[in-house]
Amino acid sequence: MKLFFPFVAAGTRKPLNQLLIEDLSADRVREFLTHLEKVRGCGVSTRNQRLAAIHALARFIGQYNPEHIAWSGEICSVPFKKASRPVLPYLEKSEMDAILAVPDRQTAQGHRDYALLLFLYNAGARADEAARLIVSNLDLGPSPSVRIIGKGNKVRLCPLWTWTTRTLALLVEGRILSERVFLNRLGQPMTRFGIYTLVKRTVARAIQRVPSLAGKRVGPHTIRHTTAVHLLRSGVDINTIRAWLGHVSLNTTNVYAEVDLEMKARALAHCEITGTRRNGRKNWRDNHDLMDFLRSLQKVDRDPSIGNGERHGYFHSP
């Protein structure tokens, strides 16, 4: 509104406190949206957010002032602009291995960093979920798993790899069950911002080993996307991945099937055209059964004693 009202006031040459409902016309809204994109350099998503606020204002006025219902409908008819959905970033296996190789596991902090990165990759956990993880949520027995509390306090169980189990067991050894699993150097629980900083710092060092990381924006959520794509490549069905990541809708998980170029290449290879003709291809004239059938139809068609219905095979005479 702080952008829209001054724009309308400048266009109508009126003070802000003298603007009328009629001054906020649909054409003026379209001019404002064009101004946002061409003058202010806003993207499509920002443009749509501004328009959503204007729609909300129009609906509010139309609800409490019935005389402006027609005006409200005109404003709300200004459409949103479709924006191309950005490709979800994910890491290749070599890039993820390079990130995991950065921490010095001989030190306490390095072991903590390695355990956190490995846990994010194993569980596909969000940064906030990893930050809130407590020792009692870990089951490091014969069938190791972790109990993750996600968005809306929804609980999901995720299996742990053997190596992840050993790493976490060393990290939480001797700790009380109610304590957070991942602590900072001061012994305080890590926050999701601290986890984000750790991932960024580790990636910056891993670029020296794998230069392809330099062109990617990597954060904790990128590792979550990586987990989903690698599970998909391993043959895990999409519904299992949905439960693994804690998605409510399967449509959210289907995005990973769209971004994986490796799986697309394998699918394309199955229908690749080689350009060579098949050997031993038979001519239709070599099918003797078919020719005999056609000759029999020809004989029936020439026999005048057979009626039209019998000739065309609709029924047979007794």
Topology:
Elements: H1 4-12, H2 26-38, H3 44-64, H4 69-76, H5 93-100, H6 108-123, H7 127-131, E1 138-139, E2 145-149, E3 155-159, H8 162-171, H9 192-206, H10 220-233, H11 238-245, H12 250-259, H13 261-270, H14 288-302, H15 308-311
Antiparallel strand pairs: 1-2, 2-3
Which sheet architecture does the biggest sheet show? 3 strands, antiparallel
Strand content: under 5%
Shape: flat
CATH architecture of the largest domain: Orthogonal Bundle
| First-residue to last-residue Cα separation | 88 Å
Radius of gyration: 33 Å
Explain what the structure shows.
The chain has 318 residues and is mostly helical. It folds into two domains: 4-76, no CATH class; 93-267, Orthogonal Bundle (hpI Integrase, Chain A), CATH 1.10.443. It contains 15 helices and three strands. A three-stranded antiparallel β-sheet has the order 1-2-3, covered by helices on one side. A hairpin with a 5-residue loop joins β1 (138-139) and β2 (145-149). α3 (44-64) packs antiparallel against α4. The longest helix has 21 residues, at 44-64. It is flat. Mean pLDDT is 84; it is low at 308-318.
Summary tags:
318 residues, single chain, disordered C terminus, 2 domains, three-stranded antiparallel beta sheet, mainly alpha
In short:
The chain is mainly alpha-helical and 318 residues long.
